[in-house]
Structures are given as C-alpha cells and as structure tokens.
C-alpha cells in the first residue's frame, strides 16, 4: 500500500509534456509537488510503501513499487512476503498454494501434450524417448573421444590413473599428511585439507589459502580465481580480474586500481598514470538502468576527459564473446601491438567479395559487419590486412534524403594484433581522389575512441551525440532498432504503452553507452 501521497519532482525536457497533459502548470528545471497518482510508472523518485502482508514500512523507488504490484496489486516487502502473496493468490483462484498443482494447470498440460505428442505426459512420447536415446549416444561418443585423448596424452583412458596425476596426489599427501577423500582429491588437484565446510588449497603461486564450500562453488560457477589471496573476498568480479591480469602481463609501469582520487567521488577501475589511460569494466547487470543512471558512463568519460585521461569502457558481452578483438585494442592503446606492417608495402584494392568483408569485420571490428557500397582494402602478400568501408550518408526518419555525393565512413580496422602503419591515410586518400565526394560523415564511439584518427585524416569535429541505449537479453546487448514500438505492436503488445514500458514488463532493461563524437570532412 502506498503511504506517500505527494512527491516533489524536478521537471526536465523529457517528462514535462506528461505533466502538462495531466493539467499541471510547470516549467523545466523547477520543482513541483505532484500527486503520486500522476507520476510516471518508470519514475525513480523515492516513495514510502507499507507491506500488505506484514505491515512493514519500506522506502523504495516508485518504479520498483510498480514492478512489485503489477500482478496482483499487492505490495510485498521481501521474498518471504512475496511467497505468501503468491500462495494466497493461488489459494484464492485455484484452491492450491501453487498454480502448477491445480487441476486447471494439469488439465491444460495434458491437453497440450495430447495435441502435440498424442499422449498425456511428454515422458510417454516417442520424441522424448528418441531425445533420451540420442543424448545417451552423444554422451557415449564424448566418453569414447575423452578416453582416446587420455590414451594419446597419458597412455591410460582416465587422467586420474595417469602417473602425472598420481605423483601430484602422492606429493600432497606426503607433504600435509591430512585425511582427504579420494573423491575430493579427484575433483581438486591442489586441495590440502578440509574441515567441515572449509577447504584449504595450495595456490599455483605457492601460497596456502582457506575458502568456504559456498564461495568455492560460486567462484567455480562464474569461472573466476578461487584463491582468496589473489582474488580477495568482496573484491572485483572474475572478468575484471582477468582484464587486470592481461594488462599487468603486458604493462610493467604503475597501475592504480579502484582509485577514487582522480575523478572524485567516482571510481576508476584501472588507471595507468604514465599513459593517461583508464579502463572501466562494465558488467551488464550492475551497469543497466536498474542500477545506473542514463548518463553514468557518459559522465565518467567526460570527467576523465576533463583530466586529460582517455577512458576505455570494456563491456561484459564484448569480453565474453569478442575477447580477442578487445585484447588487440588494449595492446594497441598500450603501444604493445605485436605485429607491424608498413602501409607502403601493401597493395590497395576495391574488394567485391562480401563473404571476405563479413568475415574480416566480424573477426577484427567490435561492431562487426555492416552493409556498405564501397569497400577498400590493403593487401600484404595477398592477404587482406586493413579495411575501410563507405556508404551513402544515413539520415534520421522524416529528414530529407542525402545528395549522391554525401557519404559516411562506416568501418575501419586492421587485422587483429597488427599495426598497418599509414593504412587509414592511404585508404581514405584513395577514396577522396577516386569518388565524387562533397561531404563525408563519420562517428567515433566514445566508449573506446576520442576521434584522434579522424582528426589526423582531416575531419572536423561537429558535435557530441546523446548516449545510445541497448536492451540486455541473455547477457548480450541488442540494438534498440530491433525493439521499436511498431515492431512490438505487430508482435501483439499493447498500443497504449511505450516501447520502454513494454520492455520493462518483459523484464528486459536498457543499458546506456557514452554516446558518439560526430565528424565531418
């Protein structure tokens, strides 16, 4: 139940029209008392609510409150109260605590199974039996391959029978003389001892550490270092530590970690003072709109720019799925790119093989493939090592079409871990000299670029764009274009709701980047 009746809100250009429609006389950048019934459901203004289950008073955002009551119009203050709420509703509607146990649900399941499989229960169907059979065959094949690999490497069909493993096991037992079950030793090669719910391990850096069974399980699950000395408890995420380790491996000068003195009160995850270079690791869950404001990443970028620092944002999905490209970019920023080719030794060609273009961009560019009209490549020993693509300048909906001689530089990248000296200049000069160009537009992603390359090519800075947003689905950012309201309505969602409201109801949230820098040649 809502306790708050009136809230004080500061008007901005995005929300003012909503309140004018509600009959309020308001101006931008001024605060007004607003009836809570008129506040937008997605507002992050703090309100006070009373739990309809236990009566506890809680302060939360209005957005969180609306998400909490959306199914049954009952507010629950905790998971415990939410369970009671769901059980009460199910008892009221179906006479059982859980809908899955109701006659209605069981009847629907049987009806669906009869329609799809010809039997009341899926486990009775031929499809289920066939799937189980195939899984067993695949499992058997995997075991055969596994045994073949062990036989080839160790001369036995199981690693735990090998001399290599048995010697390690014997050394640990001799050194510590603690009673450890064979099952645990088979699971953890570097286990020293165990006591109730705590394990003691020997780290590969030759120090001992203790870890609880629960923490060990969690760290294994997210594939992070289990050592509580190398990776202290309540410290950084596993992926952020992987990023830090990679930088340490290739950079030997001073590295500041979790520093709040440079852009106070904001924190820099990783800062290299000698290079005026910083890195921010953006986990998608904690950096989404649920936990960060729309301008959070932009503000950090601009605060760093004010101090003469370039901030590189490393996004979780890029680290998971495009790590080779991210690492190549980091090495370039550190001046440690391993391979070097002189542009004068390359041959320039207009590339017509779209398959070659797609593969090159997907392998070497963070944003991947995009359709283009002109593709210019540099070849070294008959291999494509640098690529620049152009298309007709894109315009926003409702604006006039572009002229034939207005272009956009869409993509530029070199081969992974390769610095092709002078490649951008050579490719761009060829395009300007061989095509009718009145104006060329391009954009630099502020997440990892300050546009320095385009300035070298002769482009002039025009303006900064607002942060772009993406929707997070299955741990990957998806461009907003695929979730336009017209598409969502065609899929059966309400016309009365905004794109954002529809996506929030689907429990799909936005994440914002730092925007772009627009350049004109």
Q: Explain this structure to me?
A:
The protein contains 17 helices and 23 strands. The chain has a seven-stranded mixed β-sheet, sandwiched between helices. The chain has a four-stranded mixed β-sheet with strand order 8-9-10-11, sandwiched between helices. It has four domains: 6-77, no CATH class; 162-221, no CATH class; 238-333, VSR Endonuclease (Endonuclease, Chain A, 3-Layer(aba) Sandwich); 351-520, 3-Layer(aba) Sandwich (Aminopeptidase), CATH 3.40.630. The relative contact order is 0.05. The model has no long low-confidence stretch (mean pLDDT 84). It has helices spanning 16-21, 62-69, 79-94, 103-117, 126-154, 163-176, 182-187, 213-221, 238-250, 296-306, 316-321, 323-333, 354-364, 423-434, 452-456, 485-490, 499-505, and strands at residues 6-10, 31-35, 46-50, 57-61, 191-195, 198-202, 208-212, 256-259, 268-272, 277-282, 310-315, 339-342, 347-350, 374-380, 383-392, 406-414, 418-421, 439-445, 460-464, 469-473, 476-479, 510-512, 516-520. With 521 residues, the protein is an alpha+beta fold.
Fraction in beta strands: 15-25%
Number of helices: 17
Q: Label the overall shape.
A: globular
| Strands, total number | 23
The level-1 CATH class of the largest domain: Alpha Beta
Radius of gyration: 29 Å
Helical percent range?
25-40%
CATH superfamily label of the largest domain: Gcn5-related N-acetyltransferase (GNAT)
Largest sheet: 7 strands, mixed
* Strand order, largest beta sheet: 13-14-15-16-18-23-19
CATH topology-level fold name of the largest domain: Aminopeptidase
């Amino acid at each position: 139940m809502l306790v708050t009746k009136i809230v004080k809100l500061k008007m901005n250009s995005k929300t003012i029209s909503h309140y004018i429609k509600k009959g309020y006389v308001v101006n931008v950048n001024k605060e007004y008392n607003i009836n809570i019934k008129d506040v937008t459901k997605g507002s992050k203004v703090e309100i006070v609510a009373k739990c309809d289950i236990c009566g506890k008073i809680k302060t939360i955002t209005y957005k969180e409150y609306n998400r909490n009551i959306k199914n049954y119009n009952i507010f629950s203050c905790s998971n415990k109260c939410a369970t009671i709420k769901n059980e009460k509703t199910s008892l009221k509607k179906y006479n059982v605590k859980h809908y899955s146990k109701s006659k209605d649900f069981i009847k629907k399941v049987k009806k669906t199974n009869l329609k799809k499989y010809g039997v009341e229960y899926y486990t009775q169907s031929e499809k289920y039996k066939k799937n189980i059979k195939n899984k067993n065959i695949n499992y058997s094949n995997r075991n055969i391959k596994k045994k073949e690999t062990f036989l080839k490497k160790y001369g036995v069909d199981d690693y735990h029978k090998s001399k290599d493993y048995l010697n390690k096991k014997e050394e640990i037992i001799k050194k510590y003389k603690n009673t450890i079950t064979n099952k645990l030793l088979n699971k953890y090669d570097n286990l020293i001892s165990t006591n109730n719910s705590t394990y003691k391990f020997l780290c590969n850096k030759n120090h001992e550490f203790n870890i609880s069974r629960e923490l060990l399980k969690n760290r294994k699950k997210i594939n992070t270092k289990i050592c509580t000395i190398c990776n202290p408890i309540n410290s950084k995420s596993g992926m952020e530590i992987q990023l830090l380790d990679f930088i340490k491996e290739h950079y030997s000068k001073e590295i500041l970690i979790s520093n709040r003195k440079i852009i106070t009160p904001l924190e820099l995850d990783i800062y290299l003072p000698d290079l005026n270079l910083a890195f921010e690791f953006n986990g998608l869950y904690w950096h989404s709109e649920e936990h960060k404001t729309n301008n959070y990443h932009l503000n950090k970028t601009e605060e760093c720019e004010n101090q003469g620092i370039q901030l590189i944002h490393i996004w979780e999905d890029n680290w998971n799925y495009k790590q080779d490209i991210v690492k190549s970019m980091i090495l370039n920023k550190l001046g440690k790119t391993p391979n070097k080719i002189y542009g004068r030794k390359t041959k320039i060609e207009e590339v017509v093989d779209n398959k070659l273009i797609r593969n090159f961009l997907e392998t070497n560019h963070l944003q991947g493939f995009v359709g283009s009209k002109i593709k210019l490549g540099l070849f070294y020993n008959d291999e494509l090592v640098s690529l620049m693509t152009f298309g007709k300048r894109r315009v926003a909906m409702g604006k006039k079409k572009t002229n034939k001689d207005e272009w956009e530089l869409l993509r530029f990248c070199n081969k992974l871990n390769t610095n092709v000296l002078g490649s951008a200049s050579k490719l761009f000069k060829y395009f300007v000299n061989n095509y009718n160009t009145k104006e060329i537009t391009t954009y630099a992603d502020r997440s990892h670029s300050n546009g320095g390359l385009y300035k070298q090519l002769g482009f002039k800075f025009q303006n900064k764009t607002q942060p772009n947003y993406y929707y997070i689905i299955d741990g990957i950012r998806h461009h907003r274009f695929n979730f336009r309201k017209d598409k969502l309505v065609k899929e059966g969602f309400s016309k009365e709701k905004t794109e954002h409201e529809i996506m929030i109801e689907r429990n799909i949230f936005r994440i914002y980047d730092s925007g772009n820098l627009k350049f004109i040649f």
